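Lab notebook, bench 4. We co-purified these components, and the gel suggests they stay together. Before we commit to crystallization screens, I want a quick structural picture of the whole thing.
Request: model the full complex, all chains together.
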Amino acid sequence: MSVEILSLCGPEEFARTLAADARAGLTRRPKTLPAKYFYDERGSELFDRITRLPEYYLTRAETGLLERCAEELVALVRPREIVEIGAGFSRKTQLLLDALGKHGGQRFVALDVSGDALRAAGERLGARYPWLEVLGVRGDFERHLAGIPRSGARLVCFLGSTIGNLTAEERLPFLRDVRAMLATNDRFLLGVDLVKPLARLHAAYNDAEGVTELFNKNVLLVLNRELGGDLDPRDFAHRAFYDPRRERIEMRLVALRRIEARLARLELPLVFEPTEELHTEISCKFRREVVAAGFKDAGLVLERWLTDEPGDFALALGRPG
Ligand code: SAH
Ligand code: AVI
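Here is the predicted assembly.
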């Protein structure tokens, strides 16, 4: 078993980027933070709990699809390596790795901003698949895709509908970077959550146990720890709602009173007026034609579109156009 970690974004660069994003986002109206800052060790664990909630159908739907299609997809591409972007704990990926082993593949490369998730996944997968070379790459998928070393034919995966956490403007350069990772016979496998009636979407982001609330508020603890902040999560309420016009969930933190705080390391005073919102995440929901058009703009062709029985979730297979 061999597990290696490559850092394309060391702790200093991470801290610099967080400081710049926090300053820019918290001095703008509405106040906004990039969703990637949820995922410290606690945030990654909380997301993992979310994936098991009864209301959060996404992970179960995608797992079911992979149980049905992973073998067929890997047989079609016959990759030497699977590269997973935003891999997290790479649980569903095991279905692809089982197939990779059967079809002579040898390497798994996981890219994530969270070093904690990469280490945990690397150890688990290294022990489970002794034949597999495992490379964890710590980096930002909006900046570091070109730095992922290549060992041969590739299946690049981006699961979990994490692409929905990007705006349409952010999606295009991201997909162009993905396209640039692919040689002619390589493929891109994208998991997307589909547009559906509002009630189920609302429930998925407002679970009864309050795990999504803890996940949302975790970004405040990240700011406190990394930037010397004194924000109190009890001063904020979790808010998540579906915007049918933009076909996306909006997730926010709402100030329950006037809050005066500061981020000492940025020497940045922070004032929230009562009911003022901090925009923490969007989660876009997709239709086939939107995915096909996004692929086309980035130089990819939608080759296969696989959905689960209820039409909740889709896997889109793209090839270079
Ligand atoms: N792929 C897994 C995890 C999804 S959670 C699944 O389908 O369940 C989203 C993952 O993307 C987290 O592990 C988070 O750390 C990572 N992530 C979010 N923004 C990122 C970014 N800009 N660059 C790299 N990883 C990112
Ligand atoms: C990682 N990402 C696709 C999740 C989503 O559904 O947008 C993150 C999440 N936010 C709240 N719950 C889950």
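The longest helix spans residues 57-77. Worth comparing against the SEC data before the next meeting. DSSP finds nine helices and 14 strands in the chain.
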